[in-house]
Amino acid sequence: MQETGSISIHTENIFPIIKKFLYSDHEIFLRELVSNAVDATQKLKSLAQLGEFKGDLGELKVRVTVDKEARKITISDRGLGMTGEEIKKYINQIAFSGATEFVEKYKDKDAAAKDQIIGQFGLGFYSAFMVAEQVEIWSQSYREGTTAAHWTCDGSTEFTLEDAEKAERGTDVVLHVAADSDEFLEEARLRTILTKYCKFLPIEIEFEGQVINQTQPIWTKQPAELTDEDYTKFYQELYPFSEPPLFWIHLNVDYPFNLTGILYFPKVKDEMQFQRNKIQLYSRQVFITDEVKDVVPEFLMLLHGVIDSPDIPLNVSRSFLQADSSVKKINTYITKKVADKLNELFKKDRAGYEEKWSDIGLFVKYGMLSDEKFYDKAKDFVLLQNAAGKYFTLTEYQEHVQVNQKDKNDQTVILYSTDPEAQHSFVVAATDRGYDVLKLDAVLDPHFIGQLEQKLEKTTFKRVDADTVGKLIEKDETTESVLSDDDKTRLQELFTKSINNEHMHVQVDALSPQDAPVVITLPEFMRRMKDMQRVGGGGGMAMFGSMPDSYTVSVNANHPVAQRVLNAEDEAGQKLARQAFDLALLAQNMLKGEALTAFVKRSADLLAAE
């Protein structure tokens, strides 16, 4: 038998489209052809299990070879094979999917068959023409009494099909590599592609005498079969230069969708430099992509690991996800599994959970900010750490501060520090009053604070240096000033003249004599907007991030320094006022450069004058 004919398509321009536009990355031709070979092998195994193939299966490897001098790449399998008629049906009629027909035929006989077949589109074979100027198929069917067939096509719509001699069952696909695709004749390049896409395929893939894949990766096994060492070893295989993960979640569900995989919580060293696209998406053990933003919730894109699902719809190139109800269900399921795992860790080993919080906290807060359902679950295991290093849940902390930190309007005021070292004097002033101060120094905390204020009833947050300690939590009691109104006005004028800065607004307050003589604060509203602007966001308030700082300078009327400034001569009074102001700048880490040099010299002069 020999014949020639035209491939059954609707337009003469289909091949240029396939070659240039259908597949965005030319290297995936090898993934598609190897996947087809695996499909053919899986089909034969299924038929043997059903008793419809009684011959000797033999060694069921898929072999990939390259002959650089002859400019050939060959993909060989010992699967079903095809007759000439089947080649005409499955190869010449573009988009007629052999895998789809096979599954339909045997779906009632073997439920496992459907999950073992990778091919979905019937177009994968034609990706070969992205790199080949001519493609040959040599195939011998598993059916007894059939003749081998040889098919040839040069990338046009014309083909040749003839009888042939082939000693073994199966199919050889031979690519005659085009002049513009020399890179794919390099052994190292092919090995890289095979390792990327095929290293977990369920049938052994041999390249130049070496098997390059694991046929049973650990996500295909039951958790009971695996040890912690198995999970950490697999993580190191995926990410060779990474530190061991904190913990992991093994995904395994078969209803209402199929999903397996392992998600790892990595150690996050630098919150501003965390890497995304570390989760690999597979479909029946074939690597598809590491862009999983539709499948995995946004806040979990920081996780590492593998997800494998045949139920995630792909376009014909298998490179892009198409959002649909299955994807949304999987997304919701993953969110729930992560929340359940974190809750389990918190309840089972709180001390261990607290030790990991510096790494876990980013995921939890990100999730609470971006997913309302996750917030509802996470509010029970999110932790707050105070400046002394002690951890609290939200409920625990509210109970901890509600007695002492309620203001005159019955609002609970939660004090926090973004840098307990730099804001040490303010933290001490607050704790001396019996207040507790949280440490909220993470990159997402400005947004997290805003969320908690919306969620927690009658609760507000104030940074510990946002006002004088007496005004942070306003009570009904007041402190009387020892100065007359005239003295207060004169004191304000002296400080204003000494400071000489339009962004520093001086006021005289009746504070405790034990408080600092001068306190410099940035109002909470302005500080919050600037913090949010620095990490991105702030909505309509973003403009505040670029506005000049406007500080409040609170002069303590009841501190002995105030009286000394008033009693001194005008010039000496201004000098004392400037010294007290610079001390306040120093407490806020705002005294630098020339001003710091002047402060040091002035301090030496004052000491010498004593």
TrEMBL record:
Listed name of the protein: Chaperone protein HtpG
Family indicated by similarity: Belongs to the heat shock protein 90 family.
Taxonomic superkingdom: Bacteria
SUPFAM superfamilies per the UniProt record, alphabetical: ATPase domain of HSP90 chaperone/DNA topoisomerase II/histidine kinase, Ribosomal protein S5 domain 2-like
A GO MF label: ATP-dependent protein folding chaperone
Pfam families per UniProt: HATPase_c_3, HSP90
Residues reported to bind ATP: E32, N36, D77, M82, S97, G98, Q120, F121, G122, L123, G124, F125, T171, R318
Keywords: ATP-binding, Chaperone, Cytoplasm, Nucleotide-binding, Stress response
Record keyword Nucleotide-binding present: yes
